[in-house]
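pasting for ref
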Amino acid sequence: MNFFIRLAAYLFHPLLMPLLGATLYYIVTPRFIELEIMQARLFSIAIITLFIPIIVFFLLKNIGVLQSIHLQSVGERKIPLMVQCLLLLLIIKMVFDPYESPELYYFFVAILFSSISALILVLLKFKVSLHQMGIAGVTMFLIALGIHFKVNVLVGIGFFFIANGWVASSRLHTNSHTGIELIIGFFVGILPQLVMLNFWL
């Protein structure tokens, strides 16, 4: 049981959420998108939001800035979140166009605002749950996709609501976060996605 609860923190790691959101978009959208374009964009997202942050983490760990990948202290989160914001700006500028792919473009804009909000909270010495922030944002994005494309995604929505609870239980079980940090993380993830719906839904 202990292993099952802890598993959520790895399956729904914040670094995986941008790639998961984009994958869900390509699964749900009824629009025809060439396979090569889809693969190229997913590969670009994986490189920018997953592989580069992992490389940066090991560099920061080697020079003693970070102690572990869990970023347990508030201070350790500052540089990784700054790097994440810069990488998200790169995706917004180089990978997606607001006219060609408005759903994904504003999905990443919302993630950027969530990351900036988390960074501001870190500067205020508050450790928001990045895991909860990530899974909540993807859940809201999937709900919006279902409404936008008039596609039945109730099974997926149900799964992600369960995943939100699973992630919250995992973070509480490992004493990684308090209840208030999880609640604020949930709203920091979901509110920017809600605001961005005005531009594409």
